[in-house]
Amino acid sequence: MAKKSWLLKWPALRQLANGDLAGLGDTAMSERTHSLKPRTSTADKIVGSVCPYCGVGCGQKVYVKDGKIMDIEGDYDSPISEGCLCPKGSATMQLVTGTHRGMNVLYRRPYGKRWEKIPLKQAMDMVADRVKQTRDETWEDQHEQGHPLRRTLGIAHLGGATLDNEENYLIKKLFTALGVIQVENQARI
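Structure tokens predicted for 4Fe-4S Mo/W bis-MGD-type domain-containing protein (189 residues):
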């Protein structure tokens, strides 16, 4: 009897003894395989997202633990991709967490020959200052005949194909509030 229990530790012998020749049942399992669980099962939360690479808009699930991304997979609830991702979409985790990812903004001064690293906050402040300055310098409050215009032709926006409807809506609201009337999207060009 002891010899029989020792032999049944081998999955192939268990399959034969239990008549599970295809090895699809519990007879093919070991204690280790019973203890395995998905690497995403310890996530604190799952956030829905959209793949950033092309205009298809494949759904993604972002698994977060302790405020850090631990995995990104295809979203089976997405009517677009039904859980499938292309090779680039499958590598999104590397885009977000890779050690090769640039964490600084590169800036080249006017007529400069070299790029310099500057903090993101400084770059954002520079962009905001330039948008305000351009808007102030090119603002048209009214037509020469007195018709109200309240616009600027000094700023335009061209959106990318990976933006979803909600992002495009918010961008349009922002630029309209700034008086920008030249707002377009790459997907329509």
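The helical segments are 2-7, 11-18, 31-35, 87-90, 92-97, 120-138, 165-177.
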